[in-house]
Records
---
Amino acid sequence: MGIGHFALGFAAKRAVPQLPLWLLLLAPMFVDLLWGIFVLMGIEHARVRPGITAASPFEFYDYPISHSLLGGILWALLFGGSYFLIRRYRAGAVMLGLLVVSHWVLDVISHRPDVPVLPNGPYLGLGLWNSVPATILTEEAMLAIGAALYLRATRSGGTASTIGLWAMFALFAVIGVAGTLGPPPPSITPVAALGPILAAVLIPWASAVDSRRAPA
């Protein structure tokens, strides 16, 4: 799943308003960020295989460190535990850990049976990506709900924060459709590199927007 991961980050702001938005968006995408780094380093592997599912042309055949359930739990403990050691905010640390693990759950919903429980299987996948309309409808609906919950959890800090926030929502909505309907990339390398690039843009953007908004 793509923008559905970010949707959970927006929605979580209502439960833990003290957490900055950039952390809430980073946590559910953390294992994808690791996956991109591992692929670029040759530690994990995937390939472009058009037609393998209707909504995604990617064959994920070797990603046990970043995307197994066991790996996800360990990354969640690392991510949430690190935050707790720095901020001593227990509820925030628990939420961040849950968001990290939520990535595995959403991937099981969307992928074909290629998501590992343990590093060597078994493999799960409910196959939402086998339907383009269902994929777009599900992800865009999740984004709308997440955006609505974030808006209910915060109030505007001025025109700049409002424009910045709605521009972010619009970007995710476009990515959700374009990523499903667009042509496949020439190789897996630009896909792997996209995570670090997106994080470099999204973290300061989300930080600037969220810091200008107050809890509702």
Note: The chain has a mean pLDDT of 95.
---
Amino acid sequence: MPELPETETIARDLDRAVSGATIVDVVVSRSDVLRELPASRLAERVIGATIVRSWRRAKLVVLDLSTDERLVVQPRFTGALLIDDGALPDEERRYSTVAFLLDDGRALHYRDIRRLGTVTLMSAPRFAAYSAKLGAEPLDPGFTAEHLSALLRDRRQAVKKVLMDQRLVAGIGNIYANEALWRAGVDPSRAARTLSPREAGALHDAVVQVLQASIAARGTSFRDYRDASGARGSFVEQLAVYGRGGEPCRRCGARLVETHAVDGRTTVLCAHCQS
């Protein structure tokens, strides 16, 4: 967390709210979130730059700058990018690690309670090389049922693990892997190569549908995820399996099983209707 829907929501919010704003100062409170350059160099390179646009790649929020460099933020577990117009709660400011002060008087905070996320300034070639190591975007037109079937075809690992491998498919984490597999009726522990083309097609459709539904609900908030205005996402109300171990399956009524047998991560499934 945050996964694709959450970072997509943040990126869209920022694109509407801060595109065209110029960075006039940088305040680094916790430099341990910075990667590849120290705080002083970050300030030198971004002060005076205008934010051209904000967008998402995988689980990253990317801010394109007028200098042709990119601020790349990976929120991981407790990170958030929050716009502060003076009304941001003190509790949120307390955990600000980096603040980009804008020419209109607002600030853009990278808030991270556990400081497991990262902030990196990358040149365009550096980002291109970084991005090339990431997998296909599941909401792009090129991510077809045939493409997913080809990814699964020769892999012995559990299908859930393959879905979460960022080198193969970008942006899917534990929440949405659980949800997509339930929607598709596929056992998360099945070897990926055992899925038929028909099952791979059903899984492809489930992945796309659950991601789009979560984006429409502005993501899933359990504890720390907030959008750029500090609001919570509401997709938690639509979760069919994640966080519901021991409860009835919403499709067949059987008790949902919770296990850590697949790659050590929490997996929730219906043993009756996922095969």
Note: The chain is about 30% helix and 20% strand.
